[in-house]
Write a structure and sequence with these properties.
Length: 260
């Protein structure tokens, strides 16, 4: 379905991003993965995707805190493959704390990685998409792009920002066969979610099981975590010709969380 297309997926060495990278490669795309982690493990992941699907997969270590590195990553992908047809802005971090105790540096990092990085990558990728007359931008948002939770002010602010950015960018390129959409999952069982459990336990005075049951899944009527593969399948669909008229959309995948 995506033969001869090239996709850049930020934050794709684990979790949702890795599932999306694998799914795009399976659909036929060349893939650039990005993110932090152990070099040996990243190389094993890269080589594994390439071997499984027979498509070139390269790794780029661009730091999402650094706009110049983000732009360089897009430029390198264009030089390597001829174009960046698909951009998945997925990189994200989390920190849980009351507003009046929220560390300044954590606020700045979350806004930079979860919101500003999507802007910088999109800015770098759009000229090539416009020249080619085709493009797909998929932003990983969250149910927190639509509703709020306590103790996550920076994350909620960034994801609300992604929602607005998605809509605005979509309108700008609506007549150029470029779509811009955001997927808004509920709680997906990923390392990002797992790592926030201790902070939530501390902030709320709860056990791990109580956090999972009464905090993480409290708002999801299905009482089940979303899986990375489910998010990846939606991302691949948004890159297909069948989704050509879906743009500026905030697509929920939250077990009914935002239906109430």
């Amino acid at each position: 379905m995506l033969d001869a297309k090239t996709a850049v997926v930020t934050g794709s060495t684990s979790g949702i991003g890795l599932a999306v990278a694998r799914a795009l490669a399976k659909a036929g795309a060349n893939v650039v993965i990005n993110g932090f982690g152990d070099k040996v493990e990243i190389e094993a992941t890269r080589a594994g995707i390439e071997a499984d699907h027979g498509k070139p997969v390269i790794y780029d270590a661009a730091d999402m805190l650094k706009p110049r590195e983000i732009a360089r990553m897009i430029q390198d992908a264009e030089e390597r493959f001829g174009a960046v047809d698909i951009l998945v802005n997925n990189a994200g971090i989390q920190h849980v704390s009351p507003v009046d105790e929220f560390p300044d540096d954590k606020w700045d990092q979350i806004i930079a990685i979860n919101l500003s990085a999507a802007f910088h990558a999109t800015k770098a990728a759009l000229p090539g998409m416009k020249r080619k007359g085709w493009g797909r931008i998929v932003n990983t948002a969250s149910a927190h792009a639509l509703v709020a939770s306590p103790f996550k002010s920076a994350y909620v602010a960034a994801k609300h920002g992604i929602a607005g950015f998605t809509k605005s960018a979509a309108l700008e390129v609506a007549q150029q066969k470029i779509t811009v959409n955001a997927i808004c999952p509920g709680y997906v069982w990923t390392p990002l979610v797992e790592k926030q459990i201790p902070d939530t336990m501390k902030a709320r005075g709860m056990t791990e099981d109580e956090v999972k049951r009464d905090v993480l899944l409290a708002a999801q009527p299905t009482k089940e975590f979303v899986t990375p593969d489910q998010v990846a399948a939606l991302a691949v669909f948004l890159c297909s010709d069948a989704a050509a008229q879906i743009t500026g959309a905030l697509l929920t995948m939250d077990g009914g969380w935002t239906a109430a």
